[in-house]
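writing this on my phone so excuse typos. first protein, seq and then structure
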Amino acid sequence: MDKTRLSSKGQIVIPKSVREAHGWEEGTELTVENTSEGVLLKSNSRSPFPKTTIDEVLGCANYKGPRRSLKDMKRGIYEAMRERWERKSK
């Protein structure tokens, strides 16, 4: 069993082993419940999705070619909108 101490500001440090066991990282929001046996901490940031990196997300686009700039993407969006408008206008 891990121990911690209450600071003069009313703060505690949750032991690393407990944080790791629950997957709590810096910035994790916790709900504090007062119970008859003490205090219960619950994480508010449970995500149904595993953590991913930008490379993993971009990889799902399946694009094989040169990198595109923001200007290229805006141009492509504009052209697609123009073509759609022209089809609807006919």
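second protein below, same order as before
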Amino acid sequence: MMVWLAGLGLCAATAGDLEKNFAHSPDSAKPLAWWHWLDGNITSNGITGDLEAMKRAGLGGTYLFNSAVGFPDGPVRFMQPQWLALMDHTLNEAKRLGLQFGIHNCDGFSQSGGPWITPETSMKELTWTVKEVEGPAAIDLALAQPETKENFYRDIAVVAFPVPQGRVLTGQGTDTTLRGSVATAELAKLVDGKPETKALFPTATNGNTVEFVFPTPRTVRSLVCRNASPHKWEEDFPIAMEVSSDGQNFRRVGAFTAS
């Protein structure tokens, strides 16, 4: 848990003191910055460069977060010998530069972590695979292994349920045509059924469009839109959904915010 404390008080000061301290702030008045070490991508040169930049910018110090946000993993693991050696380097450099230094007490972002937390005792997330089958009939099959992390996985349940009439409009062989404001190759990535692929849309003043064109009237029950960026909280953007029976006149049926 992080607690920020601010002390307020009154004291006598002359106009000259105020002007002097405003122009040349004492260290006690300088702000501290949050500083993130991202996914183990840390070097001693980078640490020195960051701290010296903070000093040049007039900061009083920094508060370190050892963060994991989805960038490619670097070689430095939290609380391992290399990480501890770089922490010693950081403390020495902060002292050399006269900067205050504090550290968040865990790995990840704002969550418990470290080599003492094993996969068995760590926080969990649900993962799954789906297999569509025809029934009614006796079925004997093996479900594909869901995604795992740190080689940890435990079964919870197998759930079978009837699906509504219809089919998913993805993959090969569908009769759906896609049109839009980006190249056909990019649009195809939206419906290839592969969660690891993503389509790139440029920044556009009037927005971007994706149009699903069906040869006959179609009832659509749901639309899933995923943001592939790791910075989901920084990139919220509006989406409007419209329908048309002739491809010319559209009416809006919903407005959403993707995050």
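The longest helix spans residues 81-97. thats all i got for now
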